[in-house]
Amino acid sequence: MAYTETTTTGYGTRVGRSFKGIASGFLLFVAGTVLLWWNEGRAVKTDKMLNDAQKACVEMPNPEKIDPALDGELVCGSALVATDDVLTDQDFGISENAIGLTRRVEYFQWVENAKEEKEDKLGGKEVTTTTYTYSQEWVSSPVNSADFKDPAYQNKNYTWTQAENQDLYAENVSFGAYKLTESLIHSISSKEAVELNLNPEQLQAWDKVIGETYARAKGLQTDVNNITTQVNAADAAAIADSAKTVVPDSISQNNKIDLNYVHQMGNVLYYGRNASVPEVGDVRITFEKIVPAKVTVIAQVTGDTFKAFKTSNGKKYQTLVMGKKDADEIFDAEHEANNMWLWVLRIIGTLVVIGGLKGIFGFVETILKVVPFLSSIFAFGVGLICTIVGIVWSLLIIAIAWLFYRPVLGISLLVLAGFLIWVFAFNGKKKLAELANRGKAAPEVAPAAPAEAAPSAPAE
Hints:
Layout: E1 3-9, H1 11-56, E2 58-59, E3 74-82, E4 86-89, E5 94-97, E6 100-120, E7 126-139, E8 166-169, E9 174-175, E10 178-179, H2 182-185, E11 191-193, H3 200-218, H4 233-238, H5 241-244, E12 257-258, E13 262-265, E14 268-271, E15 283-290, E16 293-302, E17 305-307, E18 309-310, E19 316-317, E20 319-322, H6 327-367, H7 372-405, H8 407-425, H9 428-441
Parallel strand pairs: 2-3
Antiparallel strand pairs: 1-7, 3-9, 3-16, 4-5, 6-7, 6-8, 6-15, 9-10, 11-15, 12-13, 13-14, 14-15, 16-17, 16-20, 18-19
Helix pairs in contact: 1-6, 1-7, 6-7, 7-8, 8-9
C-alpha cells in the first residue's frame, strides 16, 4: 500500500531558494563550459596517441619465445594467458588455480521508491505530494529501513549475515614466454562459475549460526532444527518473480547441498530458509574465477614483460582484448570508442550549460509563481531561450577549442554558430523569409522574340 506525504512551501521561501539557485546555476554553467573545452582536447590528444601507436606498432610473430629484437618495440601479439598461482578466499575457504577469483554479495531487502508531484497554487505556494512505495529486491548492500517514511516499513530490514565483495588476482600470469603486468592482468575477462565444494562441517556451523539469528529476528524458539514459519500473504505477493530465480539453469546442480538455513548450489552460497522463495534478510554470494584464455596484447616490450607505450604527446597506451585480433582491428575500435565518448560528453556538456542558464534565470519564473498561468508561459519562454543560448554557447566553446586544436573544423563551427546568432538574435529568420518571398514573387521574364532577318541587298 502506498504512503503519501504532502508538504507546502511558501512563496517567500521559494523566492529565497531561487536566488540561491543563481550561484549553483552559475557553477553548472562554468562546469559545462569546462567539460566541453576539456572534452575536445581529450579527444584530439587521444586520437593523436592512437595514430602514433598505430604507426609504431609491429607484429609479434611468436610470443612463445622471447625475441631480443623486439625489446623496446610496441608490439601486437596473441597468446594464451595462464598461471600456476592458487588464489584463496580466506573467509570461505575456497581455493582455485585461476587468474582471478571474485566474490559478489547480494541482500534481499525492502526498498523504498519515491515519486513526487508538484502543484503551484495561486499566491505562489507550492504543494508537493510524495508517494512512497515499497518492494522487495536483491541489492548490493543492506538497506537502512529506519529512515523509511512509512512507519509500517521502518526497521523491517535485517540480514542473516554480511560479507564484502572481493576481487583476487594472480601475481604471475604468463603470456606465452612473457609475463603480464598488473594492469593487463586486470583487463582479462574470461570468467567462469566456481563449482563450490565447501567443507561440510563449515556448512553445518554456518547453518547453526544463521538459524539462531533467524529465530531471534522472527521471535521464534531457538531450536533451529524445528522452526516452522508461515509466509505472510502480503509479503509473498510482494516478492518479484525475478527474485525467485536464484541460480541460472546453466549452473551445475551436482554439488547441491540443502541444510536448514544454508544452501550450496553451483557457484552460489545462499543463506536463508528457502532459496526459491526469498525472505527479507536472505543473502546470496556468487563466486567466479578468471580462467586461461587467448588474448591479444598491444604494449611495449621490456625484457620478458611489457609496459605502456609513451607517444609523442606524452600520453601512454597499452591494451589487452579478449580473443585473437589484428592491430588494425583494435585501433579502429579504439577510434570508434573515442568518437563515441566525444559526442556523449558534448551532449552532456551542452545539457549542463543549458541547466546552468535555467538555474541562473529561474528566479524570474519563481517571482511570477504568484500567478501560475503567467509563470508557466514565462517558464516556457525562458526554457526556450536558455536552450538556444546554451546550444550557441556550446558551439562557440567547441569551435574555439577546435580552433586551438584543429583550426579547419573550428572555423567551420564558428561560421555555424555565427549563422545561428544572426538568425535568432538579429532578425535573420525574418530576412531569410523575405528573401524567400521575393524569389517566389519575382515575375517571370518572357523570352525575347527572334529578330526578323534583314532583307538581302539587291545584286548589282
